[in-house]
Amino acid sequence: MSGPPRLIYEDVRGYVQSLIRRVVNNVNIVVNNLILKYVEDDIVLSVNITSAECYTVDDVWERAFMDIAVIDFADCTVCLDKRNASGKIEFYQDPLLYKCSFRTRLHFTYDNINAKIPSVIKIQTMVESLKLSITDQQLPMFIRILELIIALYYGEIGGHKEGEGEEGSVHFIYTNK
């Protein structure tokens, strides 16, 4: 009678994996005073976030132990400035986005109870108030940043064709199956 004990073992293993996944997915993460900077030639793009908190919620978006998560961003400020040849910013422009708070909802769907990676991730972002401002000096820089994002999206920059690569480079490949 080797059938039933193995079935029980697989059920227990699947249960333990599912339990571990739920515990890991339900970790509460808080990041305070997050500053991200991107420098491209003479452009400096900076994002300042006072607080970002990620936690799981239930079907009515209240805190709970679930596979649905919320990330609350408080006081997000986005600046776009120009630097000189020595790398210093001589004149700071008005922020593109100033002290905007928003909430991002994440919903993970798994193919089965033993799946380690979600098959579907749904993302919703809600902003109560959004005040954007762009100056004449920022407009060409903003267009250049958008062009870089589009080129990155289409693989025109930042990647190598399969089989190619530079020494010491790291490549990440995501597969769902």
UniProtKB/TrEMBL annotation:
Gene coding for it: VPS13B_4
This protein's species is Liparis tanakae
**Residue intervals of the Chorein N-terminal domain:** 13-158
Read off the InterPro entries from this record: VPS13_N, VPS13B
Give the matching PANTHER family. INTERMEMBRANE LIPID TRANSFER PROTEIN VPS13B, VACUOLAR PROTEIN SORTING-ASSOCIATED PROTEIN 13B
The protein depicted here goes by the name Vacuolar protein sorting-associated protein 13B
UniProt keyword annotation of Transport present? yes
Record's keyword terms, sorted: Transport
